[in-house]
């Protein structure tokens, strides 16, 4: 059926003829329809352009905001990096100073320990020398005491021997003197004379 209609339409054109032009009113109506169609198209394109422009403006605005955010973030990151770098340098300097100080203390302590060891060895050697000298002195004194004891014992023996000799002599003399005195006294007593 559709094909038949198409043929009729063609036939109608043939009937109407190609020579017949539309009237000015029809032309005016056609042009008016075209103008309205074009105006509608223009409006649609204008709306589309406005939407596109608004979208582009929004896109640019978002890009500017993102760019600003990115710059702010970069600045914040740079500030954080600068602050962390400063803190790192400060901590590194402090740690380096502490390490140097501790190393100096270790060197000083090593020197002190070395000095104390030398002093200890020196004092120990002096002590050993003093002990040796004292032991020699004690040995010498013991020898002298032994010698003096021997000499004293010998002297006591000699003194005792001499005292015994003197006592014997004194006893002998006393006996001789007393014997003579006693005889004289006895004689005096026998004669009746009083003793002196």
UniProtKB/TrEMBL annotation:
Compartments where found: Cytoplasm, Cytoskeleton, Flagellum axoneme
Subunit architecture: Component of the nexin-dynein regulatory complex (N-DRC).
Coiled coil as UniProt keyword: yes
Region of interest: Disordered: 1-29, 44-71
Higher taxonomy: Eukaryota, Sar, Alveolata, Ciliophora, Intramacronucleata
Ranges of compositional bias, category Basic and acidic residues: 47-71
Record organism: Stylonychia lemnae
Superkingdom in the source lineage: Eukaryota
Assigned keywords, A-Z: Cell projection, Cilium, Coiled coil, Cytoplasm, Cytoskeleton, Flagellum
Protein name as catalogued: Dynein regulatory complex protein 12
Sections of the chain in a coiled coil: 85-180
Function per UniProt: Component of the nexin-dynein regulatory complex (N-DRC), a key regulator of ciliary/flagellar motility which maintains the alignment and integrity of the distal axoneme and regulates microtubule sliding in motile axonemes.
PANTHER family in the record: COILED-COIL DOMAIN-CONTAINING PROTEIN 153
Positions with biased composition (Basic residues): 1-15
Protein's UniProt keywords contain Acetylation: no
Family the entry assigns: Belongs to the DRC12 family.
InterPro entries from the UniProt entry: DRC12-like
Main location per the UniProt record: cytoplasm
């Amino acid at each position: 059926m559709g094909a038949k209609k198409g043929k009729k339409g063609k036939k109608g054109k043939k009937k109407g003829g190609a020579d017949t032009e539309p009237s000015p009113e029809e032309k005016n109506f056609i042009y008016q329809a075209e103008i309205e169609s074009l105006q509608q198209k223009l409006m649609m394109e204008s709306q589309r352009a406005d939407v596109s422009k608004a979208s582009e403006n929004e896109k640019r605005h978002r890009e500017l905001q993102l760019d600003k955010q990115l710059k702010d973030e970069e600045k914040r990151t740079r500030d954080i990096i600068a602050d962390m770098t400063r803190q790192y340098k400060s901590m590194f300097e402090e740690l380096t100073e502490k390490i140097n100080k501790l190393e100096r203390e270790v060197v000083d302590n090593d020197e002190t320990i070395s000095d104390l060891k030398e002093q200890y060895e020196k004092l120990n050697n002096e002590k050993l020398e003093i002990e040796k000298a004292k032991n020699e002195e004690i040995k010498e004194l013991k020898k002298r005491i032994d010698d003096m004891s021997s000499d004293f014992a010998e002297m006591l023996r000699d003194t005792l021997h001499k005292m015994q000799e003197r006592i014997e002599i004194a006893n002998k003399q006393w006996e001789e003197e007393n014997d003579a005195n006693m005889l004289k006294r006895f004689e005096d007593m026998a004669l009746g004379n009083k003793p002196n």
